[in-house]
Design brief:
The structure is a homodimer. By secondary structure, chain A is α/β, with parallel strands linked by helices. The first copy, chain A, has three domains: 32 residues, no CATH class; 119 residues, 3-Layer(aba) Sandwich (Rossmann fold), CATH 3.40.50; 130 residues, Response regulator (Rossmann fold, 3-Layer(aba) Sandwich).
Chain lengths: 307, 307
Amino acid sequence: MGTVSRVLNGSGYVSEESKSKVDAAVKQLNFRPNVSAQSLKSQRSKVVGLFVPVLNHPFFCALAEKIEHRLYENGYRTLIVCSQGRQEKELMVLSMLAQKRVDGAIFITHYNLSKVDEALPIVTMDRHFGKSVPCITSDNYASTWNAIEHLIERGCKEIAYVGGKPAVESEVSKRLDAYLDAVKAHGLTPHVLFEEFEHGKEYEYAEKFFTLYGDICDGVFCSGDILSNAVYHLAIRRKIAVPQQLKIVSYDGNMRDWKQSPNITSVVQDLDMIALHIVKELVNKIEHKEFRKYVVVPAKLIVGETT
Amino acid sequence: MGTVSRVLNGSGYVSEESKSKVDAAVKQLNFRPNVSAQSLKSQRSKVVGLFVPVLNHPFFCALAEKIEHRLYENGYRTLIVCSQGRQEKELMVLSMLAQKRVDGAIFITHYNLSKVDEALPIVTMDRHFGKSVPCITSDNYASTWNAIEHLIERGCKEIAYVGGKPAVESEVSKRLDAYLDAVKAHGLTPHVLFEEFEHGKEYEYAEKFFTLYGDICDGVFCSGDILSNAVYHLAIRRKIAVPQQLKIVSYDGNMRDWKQSPNITSVVQDLDMIALHIVKELVNKIEHKEFRKYVVVPAKLIVGETT
DNA sequence: CTGTTAGCGCCTTCAG
DNA sequence: CTGAAGGCGCTAACAG
C-alpha cells in the first residue's frame, strides 16, 4: 500500500493516525523493506566495491577499516574484494558496476586494468585511470625527500632505495624520484633496488638488498612496512647494528600502532584524511556533484628507534 | 525475452542458432543482468555479511582475507562490517538479513547480541549463539596447554596469563581454563590478568602486567599478537632480557608472516582451515543442507625466539 | 524449441 | 489524505 511506503520514507502527506498505525504494524511484524526491490526501483544499491590487492597487510587493512567506516557514515555498505593479483577478480569491478550490484568502486590495487570508462563512479588511490577518475594520494615526493634528508642529517653517506616497482604507472613511483633527486642534491651515490615483486616475497627482496648493497650502505629507505621489517630482521641476523651501522626508514609505519619493536622511523600517511577524501570524492561522483580529480594528502615523518 | 534468460542461465532448450544470436547481442551491447532484479526474483543475493570487531589487526585481517577468498570460490561476495564495538552496527546484521541484503552472516565479534533467531543463516567463530548456530573454533584448550608446558620445559617457574576477557561467553575462555589446569598440574602458582579491555589498549594492559607480576614472573602467555608485542616492547624498555629472564608465548602469531622481529613463539591457528569450515557450514546452512554445529580446528605451537 | 505472461516488493504517479 | 495501478529487470511456467 502506498501509505506504508510514504510512512517509511517520510515522503508525502500522511495523517498522524495512519502513521501510528503503520508504525505499530511495522514493529509488530518486524517489517523491513526488501533492498533488492528498492534497488531495482531506485537503480541504486547503496553499496560500494572496495578493491584491495591483499587484506592481510598492515597498510591495506588499516586503510580498509577507515574506508569502511567513512562509507558507513555516508550510508554506504562496503563490498570488499581482495584481488590478489588475479585478473579475473580485477575485472569483476566492471561487471559489478554493470550489474548495478554496487554504485561505485574504490581501487587500491596496483594491477592493470586495461581501460576504464571515465564516466563510471570510480576512485583510486595512487593511480591514474583517466582525467576524470579521482585519484587520492599522499605527498609521496615531499615526504620521501624529507625521509632521505633525515637519513643524511643522521650521518648516512650511502643510502639505498628498496621498493617494489608498481606494475602500472603509479604515484608511488614519485618516492623513487624524490630519492634520486635528494641523493643527487647532496652529492651522494644512488643505490636502487626497484623491481616488481609480489606480496609475500619481501624477505627474498630484502636478501637481495643485502647481497647487492649490504656491505656499502649505512642507510636504507624501504617502501613499505613488511619490507622494512624484513630488512631489519636480516640486519640483526647478519650482526649489523641498527641504527649504529645501518639506519632504516620505512614508508607507512602502520605497525607502530601494534607496539611493534623496534619502532621503525617511518613516513606515516594520514589514513583518516585519505579515507575521507576517497569516500567524499566517490560519493560526489556517484551523486553527480562536483568532485576533485586529484587530492594530495600530506604525510609526516615519525622518528623511531631505527635512525 | 525468455530465450535470452535461458541462454544466460543455460537452462531449458535453446537452438544453437538463437544461442549464438543472443551471445552476439550480449557481447555487442555488453549486457549484464541486473542483480537487484535477479535477487528480487530469486530471493537470494549471493552476498554474505562478514562482521569483525576491527580490521586493522593482524588476526582479523588475515582471517577476513581467507574468508573473502573462500566465499568468492563459492560464488558469494563479501560485505564487510567493522563493528568497532558499536551496538548499532552489531544489530545491523539482523536488519540486513531481514532486508535480504545478505543471504547469511559470519560473526567474528565478541560483543553482545541479545538473542538471535537460530534459524537464520549465521555462523560464528568462537561463540555460541544457540544450539543450531554453527560455531567454528580452534583447539584453544589443548593448544594453550601445550604452550604452557612448553614454557615449563624451558624452565619457567612463575608463569602468567595475560588476556582480554570476552564480553560474552566465548571459546576463547578455554585458554584460561587450560592455563589454570596446566599450572595446577605442575604445582605452580597462577598469576592471571584477565579483564575486559578494548582493542587499542594493549599497551596499558601490558603495563598492568608488569606492575602486577613484572618482578616475579619468568614466563608469560599472551592471548594475542598485539598484546605480546606490547609485553615484549615493555620488557626491553625495562631491561628485562627475552627470553633469558622472561619467556613469551603468544596466541595467533600472525605477524610472523610479516617478518616481525623477534619471531615470537606462538600458538598459530590454522586460518585456512577455519575459513574453509566457516564458509562451508554457512553455505550448508543457507542451502538448507546438513551442517556441523561445532567444528574444532587444531592449532599448533611454532617456536620462535622468545622462549 | 520460443514468445508471452505473471509476479518478485517497492515506490511513484494519478485518481478519487 | 489514501487506495489502486504500473513498472523497475528478471525468470519460471505455460501455451503455442
